[in-house]
Amino acid sequence: MSCHSTNSSDGDSSSNPTEWTCLEKLLLSQAVYKYGENSWLEVASVLKQNALVQHRHSDFFNHKNCYFQYYLLTEGLQTEKDNQTPAVVRLARQLYMQRIQEIKNALVHHEQQLGQLVSEIDLIRKGELDDRLKVEYNLVSTNMSQSDPDLDSKHGKTDTPELEIIKTTVEFERDIVLMLTNALMYNKEGTETYLLALEMLEDVKDQIELFKFANSFFKRKM
């Protein structure tokens, strides 16, 4: 018996939405230990209300699915001779150890990402990524203009303005967010351009928050 691997510490199920994650299996074993192997309605109810698995559709944790998953897990348990420990306890112990290893792997992955981000911040401070940032900024602006050729005219602009040099994270955040919020303002809700801008705005906010965290981490290291 093993848990499928994941880089997410919360047991992301996006890779296979029908497969139980290690975290979900552990929560199942804990619920069975508390309510017993014949109280599947109670077990299912507890899982449905658990804040750690709210991303699941409520019907995923129906009592039949919980029973079947528990049956598969206990069937795969290695039986130890003269072992009087209940199956649910042995199952929970195995899943607990696997969950710990899963979290350790996720921490290593996030530390590697943070290290890479800190390195990029250092390059930005040295000015070694200025050209690349300008290209990426122009690319985003060009894509938005191509999606809506009249976007500039809606702002009362007919000529492409001279590119302003961005010197701080605050200026970068201001310009990107302003550009995307303008796209939301001047395009009808539900259109391709509107949805694209909305998706990009959410991604940008997440990336900027991560950048700020890494930046503060870098400053503490100096």
From TrEMBL:
Gene Ontology biological process terms, A to Z: chromatin organization
Classification via Gene3D superfamilies: Bromodomain-like (1.20.920.10)
InterPro entries: Bromodomain (IPR001487), Bromodomain-like_sf (IPR036427)
A Pfam family per the record: Bromodomain
Keywords on record: Bromodomain, Coiled coil
Coiled coil (residue ranges): 93-120
Positions of the Bromo domain: 166-198
TM region positions: none
Xref: PANTHER family: BROMODOMAIN-CONTAINING PROTEIN 8 (PTHR15398), BROMODOMAIN-CONTAINING PROTEIN 8 ISOFORM X1 (PTHR15398:SF4)
GO CC entries: NuA4 histone acetyltransferase complex
Species, as recorded: Rhizopus azygosporus (Rhizopus microsporus var. azygosporus)
Source organism superkingdom: Eukaryota
Protein name as catalogued: Bromo domain-containing protein
